[in-house]
């Protein structure tokens, strides 16, 4: 009996001496590319994002694995590509606990079909098992809800919302995880016809694939104005964290879920679709910028590592901790991404895959003969999404033929554009990806190197829904 008591006391003492698990504030902004003041974006003011980037590690080369909301969130939450985790494209958004889900909602065909597969652990499941109190603001937009067992499904992101959540986690005696979804950078943007905007269209810089007209300048300025609204809510969360007294034991992550809804952006494998802001700030980590490639697939392994939890048994990402601690200059040689235009695999729709080493980008497509691509409503419609650029690009197509070409390739079924099977870009010389070098003999070595890397990735990750052959 004495030995049993002694063992219990030792076990209790051992548990008490374990280091406290860090809290996690994960700020996820919707449809925001790497456009904010710290990144050098002309015309926009983002003091809170800038201060966060300056106090943490800013990844200048961060990318998502799938450039649309649900699929990007699923990749983030599982550390696995969509063709493995089961979510390709958007699913329904049930922002509620499983107990509040109706029978009709459970039976929704999209909810049943487009979901994380059984047996694949999510970040929320792993943190729940580790004793975390968890909350999510604004939307869930992944499925099934059973695999995202948050304690609280909260409304719009505000500082007061985070303050109350932190207090309830404190009362529960648990470390906490908050997914602070901020929707303001998603269309519709603040309409400058009705609300005076601080962002001056004359001061913005348009990418080369958009026609430089006053209407498109205003559309881009409204996007930046939406980012300024987002910045204010980021500031509220950081103020609430500081006021809680838990800033020094909280990991803060700031990331966009994919790029904005312009041509070459959302639902495309170009830089505007895949490249996002990423900042990680953690107690004891040195601040500074890094050029290391980072994928959203790396975030789950990184958070488990920083929290002292066991790594995933299967992951397509790698912990960024060696980069964060300046023990390694990079964590990966390539970043990969995908799009499946008819959702859940296998299907007969066009398949798109990409690989980039940060300088060179290769895009490969299968089933291009279908000449059909999914075009999300906010990429095209004026009402209710406020998209000014689509119709304007069509209107001025004679004046800006290259911008129209890009748009017609995004929406070939409506505009008759040709979708290419293979594209190669030198991102250093051509950051807006306007000049396809795939057929250039002088770049054959780059084309074959990246094509081989892409085929190897497909084999390694079990991507069987695309046909491969001799490099086109």
Q: In words, what does this structure look like?
A:
The chain is α/β, with parallel strands linked by helices and 472 residues long. The protein is 33% helix and 16% strand. The strands form 2 sheets. Strands 1, 2, 3, 4, 5, 6, 7, 8 and 9 form a 9-stranded mixed β-sheet that branches. A hairpin with a 3-residue loop joins β11 and β12 (360-366). α8 packs parallel to α9 (214-244). The longest helix is centred in the middle third of the chain and has 31 residues, at 214-244. The radius of gyration is 23 Å and the shape is globular. The termini are far apart. Mean pLDDT is 94; it is low at 1-17.
Instruction: Give the biggest sheet.
Output: 9 strands, mixed
Describe the global form: globular
Q: What percent strand?
A: 15-25%
Please give the radius of gyration in angstroms: 23 Å
Q: In terms of per-residue confidence, which ranges show pLDDT below 50 for 5 or more consecutive residues?
A: 1-17
Pairing-aware structural class of the strands and helices? alpha/beta
> Secondary-structure element order, as H and E?
HEHEHHHHHEEHEHEHEEEHHEEEHHHEH
- Please count the helical segments: 16
How many beta-strand segments? 13
Share of residues in helices: 25-40%
Mean pLDDT score, rounded? 94
Query: What's the end-to-end separation, in Å?
Result: 75 Å
Oligomer: single chain
């Amino acid at each position: 009996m004495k030995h049993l008591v002694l063992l219990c006391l030792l076990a209790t003492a051992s548990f008490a001496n374990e280091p406290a698990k860090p809290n996690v504030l994960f700020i996820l902004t919707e449809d925001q590319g790497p456009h904010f003041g710290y990144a050098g974006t002309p015309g926009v003011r983002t003091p809170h994002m800038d201060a966060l980037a300056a106090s943490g590690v800013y990844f200048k080369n961060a990318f998502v694995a799938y450039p649309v909301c649900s699929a990007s969130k699923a990749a983030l939450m599982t550390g696995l590509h969509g063709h493995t985790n089961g979510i390709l494209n958007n699913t329904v958004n049930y922002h509620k606990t499983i107990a509040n889900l109706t029978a009709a909602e459970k039976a929704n065909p999209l909810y049943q079909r487009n979901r994380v597969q059984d047996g694949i652990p999510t970040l929320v499941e792993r943190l729940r098992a580790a004793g975390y109190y968890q909350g999510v603001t604004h939307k869930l937009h992944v499925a099934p809800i059973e695999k995202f067992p948050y304690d609280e499904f909260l409304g719009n992101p505000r500082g007061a919302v985070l303050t109350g959540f932190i207090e309830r986690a404190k009362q529960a005696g648990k470390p906490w995880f908050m997914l602070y979804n901020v929707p303001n950078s998603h269309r519709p943007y603040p309409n400058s016809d009705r609300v005076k905007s601080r962002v001056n269209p004359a001061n913005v810089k348009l990418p080369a694939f958009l026609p430089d007209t006053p209407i498109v300048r205003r559309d881009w300025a409204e996007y930046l104005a939406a980012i300024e609204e987002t910045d204010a809510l980021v500031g509220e969360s950081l103020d609430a964290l500081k006021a809680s007294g838990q800033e020094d034991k909280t990991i803060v992550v700031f990331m966009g879920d994919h790029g904005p809804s312009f041509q070459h952006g959302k639902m495309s494998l170009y830089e505007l679709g895949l490249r996002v802001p990423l900042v990680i700030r953690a107690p004891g980590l040195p601040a500074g910028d890094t050029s290391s490639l980072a994928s959203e697939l790396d975030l789950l392994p990184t958070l488990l590592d920083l929290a002292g939890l066991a790594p995933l048994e299967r992951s397509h990402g790698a912990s960024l901790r060696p980069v964060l601690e300046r023990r390694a200059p990079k964590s990966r040689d390539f970043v990969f991404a995908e799009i499946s235009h008819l959702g859940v695999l296998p299907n007969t729709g066009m398949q798109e895959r990409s690989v980039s080493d940060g300088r060179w980008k290769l895009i490969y497509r299968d089933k291009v003969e279908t000449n059909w691509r999914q075009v999300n409503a906010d990429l095209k419609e004026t009402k209710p999404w406020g998209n000014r650029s689509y119709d304007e690009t069509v209107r001025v197509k004679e004046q800006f033929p290259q911008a129209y070409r890009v748009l017609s390739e995004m929406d070939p079924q409506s505009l008759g554009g040709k979708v290419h099977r293979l594209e190669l870009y030198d991102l250093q010389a051509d950051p807006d990806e306007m000049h396809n070098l795939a057929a250039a003999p002088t770049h054959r070595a780059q084309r074959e190197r990246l094509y081989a890397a892409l085929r190897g990735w497909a084999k390694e990750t079990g991507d069987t829904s695309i046909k491969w052959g001799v490099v086109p």
